[in-house]
Amino acid sequence: MSTEMTDTATLQRLLDQLATTVVGKGEQLRVVLAAVLAGGHVLLEDVPGVGKTLAAKALAEHLGLAFSRIQFTPDMLPSDVTGALHYDQRSCEYSFRRGPLFAGLVLADEVNRAPAKTQAALLQAMAEGEVSVDGTTHPLPSPFHVIATANPVEYEGTFSLPEAQLDRFHVRARIGYPDAASEITMVHAVARTGTASAPANAADLIINLPMWQARLRSVQVSDPVADYVVRLVTGTRTHSALSLGASPRGSLALTQCAQAWALIDGRDFTTPDDVQLMAEPVLAHRLSLRPELWGSRMTTEQVLEQVLAATPTPNATTG
């Protein structure tokens, strides 16, 4: 029988259970959970075999969301994602057949292998929670979340994600390789059971995601913290190394993710620390280096560190 709890210890318990599926990646999983609590989408950019798909499936099960996986390929069409009209010979009428996008949590696997036209099929869905096909708008389930994966090292056969699509991801997270101790645990587990991690068991814990997303709005954001968010984002727009800074959508996502981080901590107020902890996963992928720096070793993460260091931190810690 599933368990549903309302105290904030539930969220920590959820993270603990997710950590048994993706071993040794509690901090990264917390970033993913924060983005989902904030109502956003997640881009997991990492090498193959580190547990991206496992994390998405386990999260869907514990959130009680219908799960759908879309394997993106270079020959995929937008209708393969959204669905299309089909002619019914019995009724002599056209009817809309829903695509795999109609699910509570959609895993867009290797999204950067699809051409821009197909990637664009996700834009309306991620921003508005609906899709338009042949002039008719179809609402998607609510809640609706996309977890997309992209491989940063396989450039052959891939397409760059456009800035407009990157901006629709609340966070970009990297799972990364496990540490030695975690990998030893996985080796022992696969030797004993044939699998490297414990499968997600929805019967253990299912949380009421809409309830938690509603609770997020009660987490206070004080004037100093809100001002700090805006000053950080503004700093990315004026930095000499960047041709593109974070958009206002970045300010909103950073605020919501800071609220989610505080909620996971069991607090009803945000602090500058919450903002700083979420700044890189929320903002780094929204930034673009100047063309003359593309061949350098500078990264948007390094630029963001400079912006954080140059932006005075407010003293206020509560709302």
CATH-level-4 superfamily name of the largest domain: P-loop containing nucleotide triphosphate hydrolases
Q: How would you describe the shape?
A: globular
Radius of gyration, in angstroms, nearest whole number: 20 Å
The overall pLDDT average reads: 86
Q: In the residues, how many domains can be counted?
A: 2
What structural category do the secondary elements indicate? alpha/beta
Q: What's the assembly state of these chains? A: single chain
Query: What CATH first level of the largest domain would be assigned?
Result: Alpha Beta
Q: Helix and strand string, N-terminal first?
A: HHEHEHEEEHHEEEHEHHHEHHEH
Beta-strand percentage?
A: 15-25%
Helical fraction: 40-55%
CATH topology of the largest domain: Rossmann fold
How far the N terminus sits from the C terminus, by CA atoms, comes to: 39 Å
CATH architecture of the largest domain: 3-Layer(aba) Sandwich
Major β-sheet strand ordering: 2-5-8-1-9
Residue windows where pLDDT falls under 50 for at least 5 positions: 1-5
Count of discrete alpha- or pi-helical segments spanning 4 or more residues: 13
Q: How many strands in all?
A: 11
| Main sheet specs | 5 strands, parallel
Can you offer a commentary on this structure?
The protein has 319 residues and is an alpha/beta fold. The chain has two domains: 9-193, P-loop containing nucleotide triphosphate hydrolases (Rossmann fold, 3-Layer(aba) Sandwich), CATH 3.40.50.300; 217-310, Magnesium chelatase subunit I, C-Terminal domain (Helicase, Ruva Protein, domain 3), CATH 1.10.8. The chain is 42% helix and 15% strand. It has helices at residues 9-21, 26-37, 52-62, 79-82, 116-119, 121-128, 163-166, 180-193, 209-216, 223-238, 248-264, 272-283, 300-310; strands at residues 42-45, 67-71, 83-88, 93-98, 105-109, 130-133, 136-139, 145-150, 171-173, 242-244, 288-289. The strands form four sheets. The protein has a five-stranded parallel beta sheet with strand order 2-5-8-1-9. The protein has a two-stranded antiparallel sheet with strand order 3-4. The longest helix has 17 residues, at 248-264.
